[in-house]
Design goal:
The chain is an alpha+beta fold and 358 residues long. The chain is built from 9 helices and 18 strands. It has helices at 54-62, 104-114, 119-132, 148-160, 178-195, 206-212, 230-235, 240-245, 254-261; strands at 16-25, 28-38, 43-47, 69-74, 77-78, 89-92, 166-170, 198-203, 215-220, 223-228, 250-252, 267-269, 275-277, 287-299, 303-310, 315-321, 337-343, 348-349. The strands form 4 sheets. Strands 6-7-8-3-9-10 form a 6-stranded mixed sheet, sandwiched between helices. A 5-stranded antiparallel sheet has the order 13-17-14-15-16, with no helix packed on it. Strand 1 (16-25) and strand 2 form a beta hairpin. The longest helix has 18 residues, at 178-195. The structure holds adenosine-5'-triphosphate (ATP). Adenosine-5'-triphosphate binds next to strand 2 and helix 1.
Length: 358
């Protein structure tokens, strides 16, 4: 759930404080009554499906959109009606937005030039910024002479050179292929640690949000369903939407939960928490055992997924790391009779109505 709001007029320690923020576009409510405090130096991700309102929130923090209701505080100062260039924030966009006719050094220096910083200081800061993203050697090139990953790093250097208190990043790695994206994720995190600036990062990629963030806010339909550390939102989802959006999960219906867990709420159970065993092997009071038949095995390199149809009429997905299975065969085969086992305390109640993205 969103954090409780502070008293609306009180100064706050938070780097960014959104207080009762809403945004209406005509009939459409893009963001609904949102309260959140983002801490100084935090890597904070806004994660959610397309259209859930993440970018609109980011644009309101930047000042490109005005909220229909509520207040935005930056380090305690009310900036709700402040122009974008008067806010101590900077934005990195997915499409880099580099000037094609300027060199890389000129692109990175752009914000300093606008602010009339003297030439000697500019040269020094540009050189430092380029070193920071390990691209000192491309200073004289034009943007078209760089790869996608390099352009993204330049966009980052250009934003960081102004030393904003808060850096807003809107799907900055979205245009990169998977391998480069993963490499850039590590670099981005390292740079953020080095500079200590608050990063607010928009993504629809759950793995990216988990990898990078100190905290993640999961958006659905203009609202935040849950805010927490990556481990909290993945291991302890508070709603079925969060459980499903953050990777693969099994949803145990209320009736089955009542019978096997003694709790009539719907539960989420991650596949890696499920073991498949021989039906005759002993079990204990902390473990739930369901009889079933393997319907499908899906080999995915590092792990294999097993889809098991239980006698209770529920299909359960179990995931097993392949570190201990023979390299040449799946270990468990389609059609095998198995026992699906999991610890009671590995199932998480996800109460409340199912919320569906707009
Ligand atoms: P995506 O990942 O696709 O960017 P998002 O979660 O960032 O999605 P938003 O871009 O914030 O979502 O959009 C939220 C809703 O507001 C969507 O239904 C979108 O169509 C609508 N919307 C956004 N900007 C405008 C606008 N300028 N005018 C009208 N509707 C808008």
């Amino acid at each position: 759930m969103a954090q409780p709001s502070t008293a609306h007029d009180a100064p706050t320690e938070a780097a960014v404080s959104l207080q009762g923020i809403a945004k209406q576009f005509g009939d459409l409510t893009a963001v609904k009554d949102l309260d959140i405090d983002i801490r100084g130096g935090e890597f904070f991700s806004m994660l959610g499906p397309s259209g859930s309102g993440k970018t609109t929130v980011l644009r309101m923090i930047a000042g490109f959109e005005e909220p229909t209701a509520g207040k935005i505080l930056l380090h305690g100062k009310d900036v709700t009606r402040t122009a974008p260039f008067d806010r101590e924030v900077n934005t990195v966009f997915q499409d880099y937005a580099l000037f094609p006719h300027l060199t890389i050094a000129e692109n990175v220096a752009y914000g300093l030039t606008v602010r009339k910083v003297d030439k000697a200081t500019r040269v020094k800061l540009v050189s430092e910024a380029l070193e920071q993203v390990q691209l000192g050697h491309v200073a004289d090139r034009k943007p078209t002479q760089l790869s996608g990953g390099q352009r993204q790093r330049i966009a980052l250097a250009r934003a960081l050179i102004l030393r904003p208190k808060v850096l807003l990043l809107d799907e900055p790695l979205g245009a990169l292929d998977k391998q480069l994206r993963e490499q850039m994720q590590i670099e981005l995190k390292q740079i953020q640690r080095e500079v200590g600036i608050t990063f607010i990062f928009v993504t629809h990629d759950q793995e990216e949000a988990l990898t990078l963030s100190d905290r993640v806010a999961v958006f659905n339909n203009g609202k935040i369903e849950q805010v927490g550390s990556p481990r909290e939102v993945y291991e302890f989802p508070q709603t079925e939407f969060v459980a499903r959006f953050l990777g693969v999960t099994n949803i145990l219906p209320a009736e089955l939960s009542q019978r096997v867990l003694g709790n009539g709420e719907v539960h989420s159970l991650r596949p890696e928490r499920v073991q498949l065993t021989d039906p005759t092997s002993p079990t204990d009071a902390d473990t739930v055992a369901l009889a079933g038949t393997v319907a499908e095995t899906v080999y995915a390199g590092a792990h294999t997924r097993y889809l098991v149809d239980t006698v209770d009429g529920i299909r359960i997905i179990a995931e097993k790391q392949n570190s201990h299975t023979p390299r040449t065969e799946p270990g468990v085969n389609r059609g095998d009779t198995v026992s699906v086992r999991f610890r009671r305390d590995h199932a998480t109640a996800v109460p409340g109505p199912v919320s569906v993205p707009a």
